[in-house]
């Protein structure tokens, strides 16, 4: 059963364990995927998942009722992973273990999951564009049409098409920054 985010957060803040389980069930896989991309180690990724949700529970009262729960979990997971990587950087044994784990990781499956997540996020961001900007953006990026070709197709001036593209790209970049996707892209291509 799907609940509005505000309702789930309110229930979490009040100590509702069923709400916590719903959040865990919905987000644990994504947290694990993020941690595994960083650490390339199943056990460490599982530990990160546990730590993230322990921190969520312990700090539940601090949650913003209208906040982005996934972004909150993402930031916690990212910080925990970076802390683990700092430990790795300071220890030759841990560094060698990480290198072995990287070689052994099944990147094809992880890449498919990561790219599916990026595709989903991209679609959501593009869907937020105003109708005309979205149409122009899709004609440019998916159909590969030039500004001039789009202008002819939509009976617009090339200057209008260019302005719509500039604005669409600005909105997309802004939204991706809010979602911290730039950092996620860097992680994906480590």
Descriptive report:
With 190 residues, this protein is mainly α. It has two domains: 1-105, Rna Polymerase Sigma Factor, Chain: A (Orthogonal Bundle); 106-190, Winged helix-like DNA-binding domain superfamily/Winged helix DNA-binding domain (Arc Repressor Mutant, subunit A), CATH 1.10.10. It contains ten helices and no strands. Helix 4 (69-90) crosses helix 5. The longest helix has 23 residues, at 17-39. The relative contact order is 0.10. Residues 185-190 have low confidence and may be disordered.
Overview in brief:
The chain has 10 helices and no strands.
Strand pairing plus helix content: what structural class? mainly alpha
Number of beta strands: 0
- Specify the number of helices: 10
CATH topology of the largest domain: Rna Polymerase Sigma Factor, Chain: A
Q: What is the global morphology? A: elongated
Organism: Pedobacter helvus
Family: Belongs to the sigma-70 factor family. ECF subfamily.
Domain HTH luxR-type: 126-184
InterPro entries: RNA_pol_sigma-70-like, RNA_pol_sigma-70_dom, RNA_pol_sigma70_bacteroid, RNA_pol_sigma70_r2, RNA_pol_sigma70_r4_t2, RNA_pol_sigma_r2, RNA_pol_sigma_r3/r4-like, Tscrpt_reg_LuxR_C
List the helices and strands and how they pair.
Elements lengths: L4 H9 L3 H23 L2 H17 L10 H22 L1 H13 L2 H21 L3 H11 L5 H8 L3 H21 L2 H8 L2
Helix pairs in contact: 1-2, 2-3, 2-4, 3-4, 4-5, 7-9, 8-9
């Amino acid at each position: 059963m799907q609940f509005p985010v505000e309702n789930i957060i309110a229930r979490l803040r009040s100590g509702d364990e069923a709400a916590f389980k719903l959040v865990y069930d919905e987000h644990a896989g994504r947290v694990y995927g993020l941690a595994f991309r960083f650490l390339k180690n199943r056990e460490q990724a599982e530990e990160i998942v546990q730590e993230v949700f322990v921190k969520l529970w312990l700090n539940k009262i601090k949650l913003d009722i209208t906040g982005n729960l996934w972004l909150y979990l993402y930031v916690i997971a990212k910080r925990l992973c970076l802390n683990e990587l700092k430990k790795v950087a300071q220890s030759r044994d841990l560094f060698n273990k990480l290198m072995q784990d990287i070689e052994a990781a099944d990147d094809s499956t992880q890449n498919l999951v990561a790219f599916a997540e990026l595709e989903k996020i991209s679609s959501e961001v593009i869907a937020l564009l105003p109708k005309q900007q979205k149409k122009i953006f899709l004609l440019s990026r998916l159909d590969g049409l030039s500004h001039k070709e789009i202008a002819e197709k939509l009976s617009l001036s090339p200057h209008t098409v260019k302005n719509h593209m500039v604005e669409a790209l600005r909105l997309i970049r802004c939204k991706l920054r809010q979602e911290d996707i730039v950092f996620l892209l860097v992680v994906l291509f480590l």
